[in-house]
Amino acid sequence: MHRINLLSQRLANQIAAGEVVERPASVVKELLENSLDSGATRLDIDVEQGGVKLIRVRDNGSGIQKDDLALALSRHATSKITELADLESIGSLGFRGEALASISSVSRLSLQSLAAAASDGLAWQVQVEGQDMEAAVTPVSHPEGTTVEVRDLFFNTPARRKFLRTEKTEFGRIEETVKRLALSRFDVQFTLNHNKRSVHQLQAARSDFEKQRRVGLVCGPAFVENSVFVDMERAGLRLWGWVSLPTFSRSQADLQYFYVNGRIIRDKLVAHAIKQAYRDVLFHGRHPAYVLYLELSSAAVDVNVHPTKHEVRFRDSRLVHDFLFSALHKALAEVRPEDHIAASADAAEAPANQLQPGTSDDFYQMESQKPLTLSESGSVHQLSDYSRGAERGQYYQPSAQPRPQLDSLAKLYEADEEIPPLGYAIAQLHGIYILAQNKDGLIVVDMHAA
Ligand SMILES: Nc1ncnc2c1ncn2[C@@H]1O[C@H](COP(=O)(O)OP(=O)(O)OP(=O)(O)O)[C@@H](O)[C@H]1O
Ligand SMILES: [Mg+2]
């Protein structure tokens, strides 16, 4: 056994980088989050060769003061929290003080900034290369805000580089990252260029119409056409956003954006609540599409669960689950055929980014969207309301009763696999009968009697 050594700072950063910087898209995420935290209203992203050669993010935020520039690249250096208590209610996207240190340990990084607070109006730059060099601060010309350039990602960690996929795949992930953030901040303008070609230009969206237009540009117009807008509030929780109609189900869970206090998250509890809400109206194996925002007190949710901050922990997870489930279940139960123009199955299946532009603004007609109110009665559909969708064989008859609430969260995940008494629809016959499969075998359901 060797003796114990303290790792050099550089090696420690490279090890830590493994957690935060998995691929070019993770760099983009961290840089954009920093820009958003700095109060920027405009973000310009330039990418070359899928981000491996260059990722440049320019913002018009508050900037970094000269004396803080080198510090910004050090591990555990952050302006966002100062004490443990701050972790209890985090309002910023970053707080760990390690993203720039990690990125700079596996790339050639330069940081240029003019701080709003700089009384002399001078901008400064620091450059580091795999943290081999001492960060030297030199004067530079730069407007108020910050530009971070990350070149030659993983140039000094060849093993990591080998895990990268094709340029197209890596850029696709970057684009997805930008989309996620663009949906989290309608008030911010985003531009994205790849190999000097413009890929996205999203103007700041203020009115409801403009917001919906952005959702259409990011998720595809067919999603907006085939979704309803929801906005509900209960017990200090607010849920708003767009949820797809049962007719717009997808074979993959690829059009699902869920934000908690502006941060995109992936959460089992959330996914389960939404799945349950759609259970009666979607074929087994189909996935709903949604862009949803949950807002609650920052003290009611812990974001310090994982280095990538993709996971959260709710203090009262039962409350959150029940709220999401009942809000969406009722919203779906209120859907009337006139709330939407049925999508063609092809449109529902096309990748979101193939559904974009080339469309006129009229495509995002506000008329096709009606806010749904959360009525306590939970109204029941007339089957005829569903006949159009049913003819298309896309969804199953919704249950008249809201699903019973789950007894405990422990049961939650097991319940997921429970098969409903009438099973899952697998086909529709003559527009009248549904052929379903449950745990005992095949059953035929007369839709008018069910
Ligand atoms: N674009 C920017 N504009 C202004 N300040 C920035 C910008 N990017 C980074 N900073 C400053 O540099 C510090 C370090 O950034 P870094 O991303 O490493 O850590 P963090 O954002 O505080 O936490 P996390 O590791 O969770 O992202 C930030 O706290 C912030 O003060
Ligand atoms: Mg950060």
Write the layout of secondary structure elements.
Elements: H1 9-20, H2 24-37, E1 42-48, E2 54-59, H3 66-72, H4 99-105, E3 108-114, E4 123-129, E5 136-140, E6 145-151, H5 158-162, H6 167-184, E7 189-194, E8 197-202, H7 208-219, H8 221-225, E9 227-234, E10 237-244, E11 256-260, E12 263-264, H9 268-278, E13 290-295, E14 301-302, E15 313-314, H10 317-333, H11 345-349, H12 383-391, H13 409-415, E16 424-429, E17 433-438, E18 441-446
Parallel strand pairs: 1-7, 11-13
Antiparallel strand pairs: 1-2, 2-6, 3-4, 3-6, 4-5, 7-8, 9-10, 10-13, 11-12, 14-15, 16-17, 17-18
Helix pairs in contact: 1-4, 2-6, 9-10
The structure holds adenosine-5'-triphosphate and magnesium ion.
Residues 30, 33-34, 94, 99 line the site of magnesium ion.
Please describe what this structure looks like.
This protein has 450 residues and is α+β, with helices and mostly antiparallel strands. It has three domains: 9-43 and 60-165, Histidine kinase-like ATPase, C-terminal domain (Heat Shock Protein 90, 2-Layer Sandwich); 208-418, Ribosomal Protein S5, domain 2, CATH 3.30.230; 420-450, no CATH class. The protein contains 13 helices and 18 strands. The chain has helices spanning 9-20, 24-37, 66-72, 99-105, 158-162, 167-184, 208-219, 221-225, 268-278, 317-333, 345-349, 383-391, 409-415, and strands at residues 42-48, 54-59, 108-114, 123-129, 136-140, 145-151, 189-194, 197-202, 227-234, 237-244, 256-260, 263-264, 290-295, 301-302, 313-314, 424-429, 433-438, 441-446. The strands form four sheets. Strands 5-4-3-6-2-1-7-8 form an eight-stranded mixed beta sheet, with helices on one face. A hairpin with a 6-residue loop joins strand 4 and strand 5. The radius of gyration is 24 Å and the shape is elongated. The structure holds adenosine-5'-triphosphate and magnesium ion. Magnesium ion (MG) binds at residues 30, 33-34, 94, 99. Residues 30, 33-34, 94, 99 line the site of magnesium ion.
